Amino acid sequence: MMVQVASSIDGFEDVLAAASTGQEWAVACLYDELQPALLRYLRWQEPTAAEDLAAETWLAVAERLPRFEGDEGAFRAWIFAIARRRLADHRRRAVRRRTVPVPDEMMVMVPAETDVGQQVADAMAAQQVIRRLTGVLPPDQAEIVMLRVIGGLSVEETARAVSKRPGTVRVLQHRALRRLADDLRRQSVVEV
Amino acid sequence: MTFGDNLWWKCNFPWPSAICIDEMPRNPLDDLTADRLLGGTLDPEDAPPGFTEVAALFAAARGQVIPVQLASRDTTVSAIAAAVSAAAGVSPTTSRKRGSSKMIGKLLTLKALGLALPAMALTAGSAAAASGALPAPAQAAVHNVLSHVGISVPKGNQSPSGKAVGPVATGSAQYGLCTAAHANGGHASSQSVAFANVQKAAAAAGESVQQYCVGVIQSADGTTGSNDMSAPNDSTPAGRPSSTPGSGKTPVTTPAGRPSSTPGSGKTPVTTPAGPPSSTPGSGKTPVTTPAGPPSTPGSGKTPVTTPAGPPSSTPIHKR
Predict the structure, then answer these.
(1) DSSP category for residue B44
(2) A178 contacts in chain B (CB < 8 Å)
(3) Which of A71, B4, B85, B125 could link A22 by a cystine bridge, Cβ 3.0 to 4.6 Å?
(4) pTM value?
(5) Would you call A22 and B84 a contact, using CB atoms and an 8 Å cutoff?
(6) Does CATH number 1.10.10.10 belong to domain A12-98+115-187?
């Protein structure tokens, strides 16, 4: 069973074909669609290095895009799989403890016409929520939940990204959901 | 309920039923509901009892705004497009793409560059220090630092007692020292170690400095050398520099004449025939008749150093 969880790209095949030849409008379409989810996921994993990791991911995507074959779901899974590898490389390079600060760019990169205070408050709230969500879950369940919730991947796409079978992903997400529900019920956490 | 769930065992064995009833999830979650919950297509109010809070948390986590600076976004997209073009073998069609093709690499390498540059500086500095080519104070400092980590480099232009020794007046610096002394009328600063060496050499020859240096200069300018010019006691041949001393660069000008020997043959040419140059200036070859560095100037107030500023002519130059 597959539920399309993310907004899809109209005419993905055409966009992909154009992007594979380096046409900017098509690359921009893919970037705009996937970069926010990619950044959310990477910020959860490595808040201070998320931007660099996202850039490394896109560079790897650019190098291999002409040879990519697959649909939109496969493309999403492929990008997140690359991001996970870059993440693993990054952690191998520099072993450090995970911290969850609000990135500075959150303060300076917001468009001027938006409510800056609300944006920052939303971002901080989201970070706190993500911390709370992942804090009660084992790492494997937390990653599945994050890929599905903030990465916007389906079960099948998540399975491809983490190199597991879809059935395994379903089991892990069920356990994660039950654990979260139990934890919230115990702590009576209802404020968001 | 799945096979891997602990409750499966508890509820499928003859335990007291109260255990099973107490621990059974009150609201089992089917796959479709779980997918909708995780995918954000299920409103928290529509979530099964017990999962309303979970759905609300997911919605809040998903609500993080990722603001993107438009200028940064455009640059990145252009760089990605250019990288894709390069990977696909398609030539970028606009100069903007060409200009931005290096941008993403630039962005990615800035951090690495920040680490690499000090490392390169250290490496280059270490190479210079290892050859003793740094200025004396720097050389001494590097010597002190590296000695703590078990690396031995020359201490610098100092004798073991810490006293400067200056250039050997009968060696490669002979011509330069004598030229400077001669130009100064045979008088130079008494504090100049180099000039003291000239005085010693002249005294050893039983001549005054002026007489000694006139002989040296004449023999260097002539066709034969009589002051041990053909057998310098170091790797740098003595002779008249073909470029202006003090330029700080390795001379690339060619002596006005064909060298009497082939570079690398081990012989040092001492003649300067008025023939066509054998190489073009700037051809990248360093003529062996060219001193590797400017001669030190006695009386200039500076302590002369024995280490030439440039690479010796016998040392191959590796360019990266």
Answers:
(1) G
(2) 25, 29
(3) B85
(4) 0.46
(5) yes
(6) yes
